[in-house]
Design goal:
With 155 residues, the chain is mainly α. Helix 1 packs antiparallel against helix 4, helix 2 crosses helix 3 and helix 3 packs antiparallel against helix 4. The protein is 85% helix and 0% strand. The relative contact order is 0.17.
């Protein structure tokens, strides 16, 4: 029951935010590179590119992010049992590590950047997406835990 009421909803919201940020950062990195070489990109083109990237990246990059975050958060939940004082910080770090491992491993193994927007400063933007996902997961699980603890007492 804990999984369905607290962990799964927190994970899904965290994953959706993380993927959306990672996709947004990727899109804007690519657009910025085009602008740097003199291509004029209108606001409507930026928006369309961002939405197209979100839809296009969802099946593969979204799945990779989901698996990476699931593993990172599972490990962190176990670690958090011993170090509860730094719970939010641990999950932020877990999100960063999940992205770093995925991006570095795929580049090392396949010799490609899975995400064009993960080059240069784009790499750090992807790590920021992971950090935000970890932070949101930590906060949501705490809020849902507090809510579930209060409900049985009031009924």
């Amino acid at each position: 029951m804990l999984f369905l009421t607290r962990i799964l909803p927190s994970f899904l919201v965290s994953w959706l935010l993380t993927f959306s940020l990672a996709s947004l950062f990727h899109s804007q990195y690519v657009v910025n590179q085009l602008v740097n070489v003199g291509v004029v990109v209108s606001l409507s083109d930026r928006i369309n590119l961002t939405l197209d990237d979100w839809v296009g990246l969802l099946p593969i990059y979204g799945a990779i992010i989901a698996v990476a975050l699931a593993i990172a958060f599972l490990v962190t939940v176990q670690l958090n049992k011993k170090v509860q004082k730094y719970s939010s910080l641990l999950f932020v770090f877990a999100g960063i590590v999940a992205f770093a491992i995925v991006l570095i491993a795929i580049e090392s193994i396949m010799n490609i950047h899975i995400i064009a927007g993960a080059r240069g400063w784009g790499f750090y933007a992807q790590l920021l997406a992971g950090a935000m996902g970890g932070f949101v997961f930590a906060k949501l699980t705490k809020v849902l835990k507090a809510k579930l603890v209060k409900e049985p007492q009031s009924t």
